[in-house]
Amino acid sequence: MSDVLAALKPPELAAFYGRIADVVDRNRGSVQVSLAAMLLRHWLENRNPQSVFELEAPEHLKSRVEVLDVLEFHRGVFLTQKKGRFTGGFERWVGIIPRLMGQPPYQKWDINLPLSMEYESLVEMPLRYQYTGDDADKDILYGLRGFQLKSSVIVTATALLRSNKVKINFRSFQAEAHDRYDFEYSEHITVPNPDYGSKEAGAIAPKLNKIVVEHRNAKRLEDAGLAAPYKVQFKPWQVTDARFTAPAEVAPILPR
After folding, report:
1. Alpha-carbon span 88 to 221, nearest angstrom
2. 174 φ, ψ to 5°?
3. b vs e for 53-90, b when ≥16 Cβ sit within 10 Å of the residue's Cβ?
4. Which of 31, 103, 165, 222 has the most beta carbons within 10 angstroms of its beta carbon?
5. Which residues of 124-145 are buried (b: 16+ CB within 10 A; e: fewer)?
6. Residue 19 resides in a domain
7. 72 φ, ψ (degrees, to nearest 5)
8. Which residue range(s) make up the domain with 39?
C-alpha cells in the first residue's frame, strides 16, 4: 500500500491533518460536537507530551452501547456477580461480598456505614464502525477508539430480617473516562479525504474521496515538534439509569 503522505514536508503534513479535522467536523452529522476533530486539533496544537486535556464528556460518548455495556459489567463487579479483571488476564471476586465477609485484603464492612468502591476497565470501539457505524460511533472510533472507563460508587446496606441477605442501595454512581491520545505508528486508518475534488495546488489525491493515513506520519509530525500526544480526561458524570443504580439483594457468600 503506497503512502500518499510520505513525500509531504512536516509543515505540509500538519496542514493536511488540520484539513482532516475540518472535514470531520463538517461531516459530523447528528453529533453536536465532534470529539474526533477536537482531539486531532488539540494534538496539532500541543507541544507537551505530559499535558492533560480536560473536557466534559459529550452525550454521544456517555450513551454509546459499548459504554453502557461496560457500566453494566462494573455493576456486576461491585455486586460480586462478575469477577473483576486485572492486568495479565487475572480474574478474582471483588466488590461487596468479600467486604461483607471480611475476606482479605478487605476489612469486614460495617453495614451501618456507607461503602465507597471504584473499578476501571477498557471500552473499545470496533473497527467495523468505519463502515457500519452511525455518526456517533464513527466519531468515538476516530477520536478515541479505546479508552478507560472508571466507575465510582457509594452504597449502603440494610439487613433483611427474613433471610441472610442484605439489600444494597446505590447512593451515588459516577463514571469518568480517560485516554492517552497517541498513535500506534505501525497502524493506519481510512478517513474522508479533505482534498477530494480540490483544484488547489498541493491538493493530496483529489480523485480519492477517502484516504488511508499511515500513522507513521503522525510520528514524523511529533518528531518535527509540530504535534504531541497528551492525556484526555473526561470530567465525571452521574449515572442515573436504573439498569445500573437499582437496589439489589446479596448474600454474604462468594458465588461458585
Report:
1. 33
2. -115, 150
3. beeebbebbbebebbbebbebbbbbbbbbbebbeeeee
4. 31
5. ebeeebbeebeebbbbbbbbbb
6. no
7. -65, -40
8. 31-182+229-250
Cα–Cα distance between 175 and 117 in angstroms, integer?
12
Contact between 170 and 129 (Cβ < 8 Å): no
Secondary structure of residue 93 in the 3-state scheme: coil
How does pLDDT run across 23-81, given as a tens digit for each residue? Answer: 999 999 999 999 999 999 999 999 999 999 999 999 999 999 999 999 999 999 999 99
Instruction: Classify residue 164 by burial, with Cβ atoms within 10 Å: 0-12, 13-18, 19+.
Output: exposed
pLDDT at 1: 58
Residue type, 183: F
Q: Which comes out higher in pLDDT, residue 216 or 201?
A: 216
Could you say which DSSP state residue 202 is in? T
The grid coordinates listed for 168 are 444494597
Q: What is the pLDDT of residues 111-148, one digit of tens each?
A: 999 999 999 999 999 989 988 999 999 999 999 999 99
C-beta neighbour count of 209 within 10 angstroms = 10
Peptide bond into 252 cis (omega under 30): no
> What is the predicted pLDDT for the residue at 224?
98
Q: Per the domain annotation, does 15 fall within a domain?
A: no
Is 25 inside a domain boundary? no
As for how many domains the chain has, the answer is 1
91 occurs within a structural domain: yes
Dihedral angle over CA of 97, 98, 102, 103, nearest 10:
150
Listed residue (127, 122, 125) closest to 188, CA to CA = 127
User: Is the confidence at residue 13, as pLDDT, over 70?
Assistant: yes
0.90 surpassed by pTM: yes
